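*** Query protein ***
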Amino acid sequence: MIPVFEPVIGEDEIEAVVAAIRRGEISGSFGESIPRFEEAFAAYCGCKYGITVSSGTAALHLAVAALDFKPGDEVLVSASTNIATALAAYHNQLVPVPVDSEPRTWNLNLDLIKGLITSKTRAIIAVHLFGHPVDMDRLCQIARKHDLIVIEDCAESHGAHCRGQMTGSFGAMGCFSFYANKVITIGEGGMIVTNDSKLAEKLKLLRNLAFTTPRFRHEIAGYNFRMTGYQAAMGLVQCNKIEKIIEEKIRIAQTYNRLLEKVTGLQLPIPSTVGRHVYWMYGVVVQPEFGISRDHLQAELRGGGIETRTFFCPMNQQPFLRKQAGFRKVDCPVADSLWESGFYLPSSPNLNEETIKKIVDAIARLQQTARIKLKV
């Protein structure tokens, strides 16, 4: 089976983890690896401060929690995204409002934001979907005009940039994931980056149970969202490899683009017009003229030893959100279509051209077989 994604972990990552364990960096409260990883990754993103946490989901949750919004306030979110983005609002007693996708970039449609803002709207969480950067200059301009706070969901966009500025450095906070399939990984874990010193201090307080002095007296309710030291040690190694990994991601996307040119009926990802797309995953949308449905194509590919994954179920369709008090019914036809027809192909950074050609040849054969059957 060709997996949809397989992380590449080398001996240097293993050695770094072992060394951290030998130094006693077991929990998230001791050692040198965490502050070094925070400093290195924040600097890479063009930010002054990095705050490590236990997951990308925790990063989003903590970022929203640090803003002290009132229960029932609204947060605009990309409709097509992992559920973690909406959970950041939901678990903070806020109402996520889905913003439909653009038909070509698949990011949230900036033209729709103004029409969704109400007196309860407080923030926007923008997702750089699959590593394609949102036009952050324009988004921030909209946010300033309407006095909204911007949080960037950068779980899929490590190293992507908009007009030379790294994703994660535009909004009040940028939230990253280091899950196993992300651009760089430590297995689990996440980080918030920011240029706001007060936010950074508050985030550090909140992630560690809000311990102050005396230690076991708590002025505010915190969370246990700490990263371990040995995870951070692995993160430092991965951070040093990030540009090489991104080069491989772009190579894979360019190879797919070239080989899929002969296959009609597939919408391929487009390069960014505002910056660098890092192609976290190589996604395609199956159009009617392809000849068979997305689900049929996926099933046939899996039968041939090729794993794929669907795009995300949009926020407007999520059952628990639709039951939430105050949740607004917002039509998101583009995000709905992406959920029905979009999927991503194997995107491991070590994929070679021979393997990609095998995948593309399988897709082309399935299309040809479908067309022959239609003619009969």
About this structure: Residues 161 and 167 are 5 Å apart (CA to CA). The mean pLDDT is 96. The chain has two domains: 11-100+107-239, 243-375.
